[in-house]
Amino acid sequence: MNFYQIYGGRLESEIEIPELRIAEPGPADWRLRLAASVDVLADATPIGVEQLLPDVCARLSRASDRFRLTFEDTGTFDVSLDGCDITWTPAPGTDHELARVDLIGRVLALAIHAGGDVCLHASAVSIDGQAIAFLAPKGYGKSTLAISMVGGGARLLTDDTLRLRLADPPIAVPGMYSIRLRDDSAKHVQRPTTSEFDGKVRIEEWRDDELSAGEAPLAALYLLAPVSPAPDRPAVARRRLKPIEAMLGVAQQGKISMILGKTEGGTLARRMAILATRVPIYSLQVSRSLERLNEVVDQMHAWHCAAEAEATVAGVSR
């Protein structure tokens, strides 16, 4: 059996997952098992469908004892209603690298949702012990901004997927200590990279002082809004969102919002409403210019120095 660190917990797995950090054997938060065939679920109710690629869908259903998340290319993942047990039945000819992407992404996000926490499509760093997160769809630059923040002295918490515990303030949990970038962004940050299956590159070599090993209270969430560069426009500007606007904006960036359907989507919406009352949520206008990233990083650090972070968590923010 293999043991890995991921999203603030321990995963016990029958398969090797080289993308994850090895953990010491011990009690597991999640247990992954393989199955040779898919059980028939007579009481399963369809919940939602998400189009992942032009020819690939993911489908979610719920039965009396489990969720079932089926990917047309990688197989079926059954997740217990408490999120602790995951059973994977591979599709014939499955690409195991793609399957691991599904597992680390949507499947564990479903397990986290089932366990009562929130999972966002976000990259996050910590500054002076306080977490900030950047939420956005693919291609908006959240990973580029996160690694630039690390270059400016922040510590990496996670890339692409962020688990939050709904405490007051919410708690950001470390996730993936790797960042996937487009080639132009990777060249700009000048880090060693490895090639990925989809044309992106991965950065996964870090100094110890560049990683946030522990959980951190969440100081702010930023919904990225890239803007065209202009010499008379600041490199970055923020606007605090009102609670309803904030809740709706963050809900759209739930890791599995698209597939949760009305029933589970209602559960997610209630959690997002709680989140919006416990942490400042901003729209962040960022110049689409790699050359101005240093200005963005400097301003983010100015907003989140120790004194500002304390005021933000207390509910006082400019």
Short summary:
The protein has 318 residues and is of the alpha+beta class. It has helices at residues 96-114, 142-151, 183-189, 243-251, 261-278, 293-303, 306-313; strands spanning 2-6, 9-13, 21-22, 30-34, 45-53, 56-62, 66-71, 75-80, 85-90, 118-127, 130-135, 155-158, 161-165, 171-173, 179-181, 194-195, 201-203, 216-227, 236-240, 281-287. Helix 4 (243-251) crosses helix 5 (261-278).
**Major beta sheet, specifics?**
9 strands, mixed
- Round the Cα radius of gyration to an integer and report it: 19 Å
What is the tally of helical segments? Answer: 7
Tell me what portion of residues adopts beta-strand conformation: 25-35%
**End-to-end Cα distance:** 50 Å
The residue ranges in which pLDDT falls below 50 over 5 or more consecutive positions are: 312-318
CATH superfamily of the largest domain: P-loop containing nucleotide triphosphate hydrolases
Order of helices and strands: EEEEEEEEEHEEHEEEEHEEEEHHEHH
Counting helices, strands and paired strands, the structural category is alpha+beta
Principal-axis shape: globular
For this structure, what is the CATH class of the largest domain? Alpha Beta
| CATH architectural group of the largest domain | 3-Layer(aba) Sandwich
Share of helical residues: 25-40%
Strand elements, count: 20
Q: How many structural units, i.e. domains? A: 2
